[in-house]
Write a structure and sequence with these properties.
By secondary structure, this protein is mainly alpha-helical. It has helices at residues 14-19, 63-71, 126-139, 163-181, 190-197, 202-205, 214-223, 233-281, 286-357, 365-419, 421-424, 430-435, and strands at residues 48-49, 55-56, 84-95, 100-110, 119-125.
């Protein structure tokens, strides 16, 4: 499939948010080596509209909230409504004299005008996904960026080139891109466009390195160690919820890992248990031999069923728990950035109050800073609602799947044991029939 160079066009998502005095945004150089982006008109000069033609009201400082709410996709969207589909598949191992690494194929189908072509297929390695996430955090500081699976694996625990590990990572990377593609703002980010469509990311990665973490550094510099007086109640409640949630997930994760370990040990015993019955059967006559062989076969079937259950728990259940632990870390980081912006506003507000007492002109940047706080609050609230909705769906699906896998496991064990009951029951012989 051919790969084209992405258009350098203003987007209908990210650019509109930035035009609304987006908090702590900075002027970054052109993203691509191609000609510079045309200057977009300001919000006051040009009305914005959604892809379906609906006008967007951008009069208030917190107008990003209304934009997000209007653009927010329903969770049960069908294929006809979405205009961007992304999948990650076909992992391949690359071995060179310098390093060994895995690349994944990223497939994109879209009808968006920001893309030159309707379909793209590119290969990306983990560090490319990491670059994308860093760029999203850098350019969209007010939004919750989905987490990536951890880069490093505990030595001696998992082989990062094993089939199981690569497949688990592929699923996590696929989910990462899907979450971005479904987001009404992040999906329009220029770096995301480049990631999906550019054949080679090398030239893009070399740009803007000096600007990395500029937002965080500027906030720390402005606040200068100022301590936030008090988080607003709703954001304090978010922090409390995250603290409780991460403790619950941590406990469930530890217990689940113990269960998986115990199941693995039990599986070893079962695999030794079955052959003993076969060995015993070889020493008996046919009347006892058949039941013993039946028990051996039953134990073997049960061990296979348990192996499948354990694999499902390791590959499907645990990764979701880990993803949400990382999600909580991401959400806490956004909350911390919000607090820093509020702290900056409080510093400026105190300085302005002092100038009023001295009858000096109050600087206009106080109002701009207030707008940034309101914009940050609106974006964070919208992403919080989206995250909560995704969480409900993910865990409902996870628990249904867990229940289904357990039902299948016990049904297989039940069917296996029931199948040998006829072999174990006494068969009436000729003498028994004559006595009756």
């Amino acid at each position: 499939m051919s790969v084209g160079t992405p258009k350098s066009l203003p987007t209908s998502g990210q650019k509109s948010i930035n035009d609304i005095s987006h908090p702590l945004s900075y002027e970054e150089g052109v993203l691509t080596p191609s000609p510079e982006l045309p200057n977009t008109s300001s919000i006051g000069e040009k009305d914005l509209s959604l892809p379906n033609g609906t006008p967007v009201d951008t009069s208030s400082p917190a107008s990003s909230s209304s934009l997000l709410n209007r653009l927010q996709l329903d969770d049960d969207l069908d294929g006809e409504t979405r205009d961007l589909f992304v999948t990650v598949d076909d992992p391949k191992k690359h071995v060179s004299t310098m390093e060994t690494y895995i690349t994944y194929r990223v497939n994109t189908k879209t009808t968006r005008a920001e893309f030159d072509l309707p379909e793209y297929s590119v290969r990306r390695r983990y560090q490319d996904f990491d670059w994308l996430r860093n760029k999203l955090e850098e350019t969209q500081p007010t939004h919750l960026i989905p987490p990536l699976p951890e880069k490093f694996v505990v030595k001696g625990v998992v082989d990062r080139f094993s089939e199981e590990f690569v497949e688990t990572r592929r699923k996590a990377l696929d989910k990462f891109l899907k979450r971005i593609a479904d987001h009404p703002v992040l999906s329009f980010n220029d770096h995301f466009n480049v990631f999906l469509s550019a054949k080679d990311l090398s030239s893009y990665k070399k740009q803007g390195l000096a600007l990395l973490s500029k937002m965080g550094e500027s906030v720390k510099y402005v606040t200068g160690g100022y301590k936030l007086r008090c988080r607003p109640v709703e954001f304090a409640a978010m922090g409390d919820y995250l603290d409780t949630f991460v403790l619950k997930l941590g406990t469930i994760d530890r217990i689940a890992q113990r269960i998986i370990k115990e199941q693995a040990e039990y599986l070893v015993e079962l695999r030794e248990y079955g052959p003993i019955y076969l060995s015993w059967a070889n020493a008996e006559d046919e009347e006892l031999q058949k039941p013993l062989e039946g028990v051996a076969g039953c134990v073997s079937s049960c061990s296979t069923a348990l192996e499948e259950l354990t694999e499902d728990m390791s590959e499907d259940f645990l990764p979701v728990l880990r993803e949400y632990v990382l999600y909580i870390e991401s959400m806490k980081n956004v909350l911390k950035k919000r607090d820093q912006v509020q702290a900056e506003y409080e510093v400026k507000l105190e300085a302005a109050a002092l100038k009023r007492e001295e009858r000096q002109a109050v600087p206009t940047d106080v109002e701009k800073c207030q707008d940034r706080v309101e914009c940050f609050n609106a974006d964070l609230k919208a992403d919080w609602d989206r995250w909560q909705n995704n969480k409900r769906q993910d865990f409902r699906q996870l628990l249904i799947g867990m229940a289904d896998k357990n039902i299948q496991y016990y049904e297989k064990c039940l069917a296996s044991w029931e199948s040998i009951i006829p072999l174990l029951q006494d068969k009436p012989d000729a003498k028994g029939e004559s006595h009756s």
